[in-house]
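Hey all, sorry for the wall of text incoming. These are the two entities for the joint prediction.
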Amino acid sequence: MARILKKEVYQELGGYDEDLSYGEFQDIRKRTDGSKLETKHLQDFEDSQRFRRNFKQVYGQGKWYGKTFIDFLKKYPEEYASLFTVFFFFSIPFVAITSLFVPFFRYLLLLQGLMVLYISLEAYRQSGSVYGFLVPLVKFVRSMGMAPEIIKYLIRDISKKVKERL
Amino acid sequence: MPPKLSVVAPVLNEKENLRELLEDIDDFEFKDYEVLIVDGGSSDGTRKVAKEFGARIVDGPQEGMAAARNKCIEEARGEYILMVDADFRFPDGLPGDINELLEKDLDIIGWGTDFSAQRALVEKIYAAEYQMNFNNTILHRLFSFLGGLNG
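and here's what came out:
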């Protein structure tokens, strides 16, 4: 959702954090929420927004988010549960394939399936939209884009630290 | 004299979305605004659309959205900035009393979003996700708890 901010407020905040490609809007919101800034929230007005229109765009968004997701978590460690969520969805196909060979993984897959069902129901309940039932699908596609980028980031980060030590 | 409000949008190959956005902005009853488009190097005719609507166009940086948004802030001439993306829509214009609100010396003016404008199936799912508070789900709370144990 859009907001109007005084230009000088943006300048005092130092603008958007250029290290983030994930959550830069959220970052500004976190830095302004609870501040002493004079804020007015209008109850009787709404804007509208078009969203990602196909799964290719959702996947692309995930790839983009994944590039700096860890930077976002370093800045806001309280958001780490989101990292687990990404890997929860990312792991589903791997758990499914492994369950074909390792019987124990069938229990894990069942657990994941129940969790996905629960998220579907919860999304339907919270949004009041029947499309809420399909929310796990969007989360899954986005996570498939995000997780490999997060892994690449972590590998780069660890290699850099190892090189520094050597 | 600088405008009261700068409506700013960082874009990259957003021809279709930008046209719809600029049509909405063109219909604003409030007229003391400028439109600034920071273009990251579009090749699909985005600039042509922006020109058609009389928007000011500035070359954007290639270093991502946050850098492009900062360019928007730097280049905006208005006292206030409405930062949007090309996929934002204003079917009802701006709030009717926006003029008075902008004279009140407020720092931030915010509002909600109507999610009923989605047309494609994926958009509708996305909108449902947007309206969901995932932090309130058992899964998220479980992960927060597990991370908390480790921390």
